[in-house]
Write a structure and sequence with these properties.
By secondary structure, the protein is α+β, with helices and mostly antiparallel strands. It is 14% helix and 35% strand. Residues 223-334 are annotated as: Disordered.
Length: 334
């Protein structure tokens, strides 16, 4: 599991409060509280010889908005959900679930007293609400066998979460068990380092290494993350930018006169009238070789007419009659 993963592991619990105290990880902050709970495991119809189904010490840490700490007294029935992690001592004697509550609510004592009068109803409520977890993990070990012994098929997973109390990442193991039966008979075996997204119910602690034991309800495969860094360029100098516009075609199509002038600059060779001419590209030409055909006599005459300048004509404006012309005309008439 990558050490920079911040995907939270989520747990939902319902149980009675044993003790209320300030959060020891946030000294001096009176609104940061902690509840101590012995998490009951009511769901005992799944058995595995490597799992103990005893109460699990749990710490619920929350921010007491409105300073209503008197609402959470011992023997108060609470239900909470949030991100969790597990901790254990070096000798593995002390094990805790640490829940950073996203939501926390309580059941009124009057309702609890009424429910205790009907023990069947209260027993059914507690039995139907085992702790539920959802987390992302990586397979690190496999054990047991499906439908073949006292030890259920299980995989030891490693998950990494963000610990808001210490503001660091925390890695801990969880063992996922698969219930005997036909549901998982065709399930493919998980290989080491497989990334999975799992949802299940807590049903105890493993006897060895003291890890959370979860019976799997749903599982999804995830692709392995790719954390390779891009290659560092060998040169640290300024990179030369490629001029892509100079490699594109011009905005206008070359005219025949330009092609003709290029043809005239080449040595004259005797070719038949219908044979095409191949014009080799120059040093400055980046395009491919061009093929042209000789002009017909009609095209040569038309182009010569277009290129010959037309002489300018003087305007034929009517001449103005002078005074001398009028006198001469009058003498002639007389």
């Amino acid at each position: 599991m990558p050490s920079n993963s911040t995907f939270p592991a989520i747990i939902h619990i319902r149980d009675f409060v044993e003790h209320v105290e300030p959060d020891p990880t946030r000294p001096g902050k009176g609104l940061s509280m902690q509840l101590r709970i012995s998490l009951n495991i009511p769901w005992k119809d799944i058995q595995s010889d490597d799992v103990e189904q005893d109460d699990i010490p749990t710490l619920v840490r929350f921010f007491n908005e409105g300073n209503q700490s008197d609402l959470y007294k011992p023997n108060t029935f609470v239900y909470s959900s949030g991100s969790f992690l597990t901790t254990s001592s070096d000798d593995e004697e002390l094990f805790h679930i640490v829940l950073h509550a996203h939501s926390l609510d309580r059941l009124h004592n009057l309702v609890i007293r009424a429910m205790r009068r009907y023990r069947i109803v209260f027993h059914a409520l507690s039995r139907g609400c085992p702790p539920i977890v959802t987390f992302l993990g990586v397979v690190i070990e496999r054990g047991g066998q499906l439908n073949g012994g006292p030890t259920l098929l299980h995989y030891r997973l490693q998950t990494t979460v963000y610990n808001s109390s210490t503001r660091t990442h925390h890695t801990f193991p969880v063992t996922a068990y698969f219930k005997d039966g036909q549901r998982w008979a065709n399930f493919p075996p998980l290989s080491i380092n497989t990334h999975v997204f799992l949802t299940g119910r807590v049903f105890g602690l493993t006897k060895e290494h003291r890890q959370l034991a979860v019976v799997t309800d749903d599982i999804h495969f995830l692709p392995a993350p790719n954390h390779q860094l891009p290659a560092t360029p060998s040169s640290t100098g300024k990179r030369k930018r490629v001029d892509r516009w100079s490699q594109r075609a011009g905005p206008q199509t070359p005219s025949k006169s330009a092609a003709r002038s290029q043809t005239e600059s080449l040595p004259i060779t005797h070719q038949s009238q219908d044979s095409p001419q191949i014009i080799a590209p120059g040093d400055d030409d980046e395009e491919s070789t061009q093929i042209t055909w000789p002009d017909t006599p009609e095209e040569i005459k038309a182009s010569s007419r277009a290129t010959t300048p037309v002489p300018e004509r003087r305007s034929q404006r009517p001449r103005k009659t002078s005074y001398a012309d009028i006198l001469a005309q009058s003498k002639y008439d007389s």
